[in-house]
Amino acid sequence: MSFQENYHRICEEIEDIKSRIGVSYPITIVAVTKTFGPEVVREALVAGIQNIGENRVQEASEKFPALSDFQFTRHLIGHLQSNKINKALQLFDVIQSVDSLELAQGLEKRLSRQLPIFIEVNTSQEASKHGITPEQARDLIAQVKEMPHLHIQGLMTVGPLTNDEKLIRQSFQLLKRLRDDVQSWFSYPLGLSMGMSDDYRIAIEEGSTMLRLGRALFGSRTYT
Ligand SMILES: *Cc1c(COP(=O)(O)O)cnc(C)c1O
């Protein structure tokens, strides 16, 4: 299926789920273009996608220059190493993977503009995953909230790699509880960036406001 067809089918599906569960807030799609070339990104942008996600600074630096004739929001969704902060700040509009105080401080001290960020939480207890632990998340959010250039847009998580729907749901519910917990600290609604190609339907049911979709939109990736 073409990108257009996948995109329209997923948009309809999102609307169907929203009306079934009775929510009316917007749900943003971030099209995750890692491993795909600029021509694929271009096709998505022409079809109306406004948010693009990449997980590697180096890959984005090779891809984005070829797309300078488009206006779109660039999201870093992968782990950011401190030696790549400067480059990431040149390339990205939103950093979704802020998962430590050190990283937040490293970003803050280099910024002279407002930077929208998400706090990445490890909700699955998988050691291989990045993200602050749920126990430490409140402290990190409280500290980042005081940094003048970092603007917390919400919380982000990667669901567990499993077919067990119950475990996936628990992970998303944990993120939502955390958001609800800290929401009163903020004067605007915090978002929930959760849901990928295999679990976005569950994520919507659990309150997601932002889906990060790769394969569901573009087909399978081939890693070289
Ligand atoms: C790759 C990736 C996605 C998208 O994955 P799909 O399964 O292709 O939808 C979303 N979020 C992060 C952090 C990723 O690295």
Automatic annotation (TrEMBL):
Its cofactor is pyridoxal 5'-phosphate. It comes from the Bacteria. One of its GO terms (molecular function) is pyridoxal phosphate binding. Keywords: Pyridoxal phosphate. Residues 13-221 form the Alanine racemase N-terminal domain. The keyword Transmembrane helix does not apply. InterPro entries: Ala_racemase_N, PLP-binding_barrel, PyrdxlP_homeostasis. Pfam families: Ala_racemase_N. The keyword Membrane does not apply. The modification N6-(pyridoxal phosphate)lysine is found at residue 34. CDD domains: PLPDE_III_YBL036c_like. Belongs to the pyridoxal phosphate-binding protein YggS/PROSC family. Pyridoxal 5'-phosphate (PLP)-binding protein, which is involved in PLP homeostasis. HAMAP family: PLP_homeostasis (MF_02087). This is Pyridoxal phosphate homeostasis protein. It comes from Thermospira aquatica.
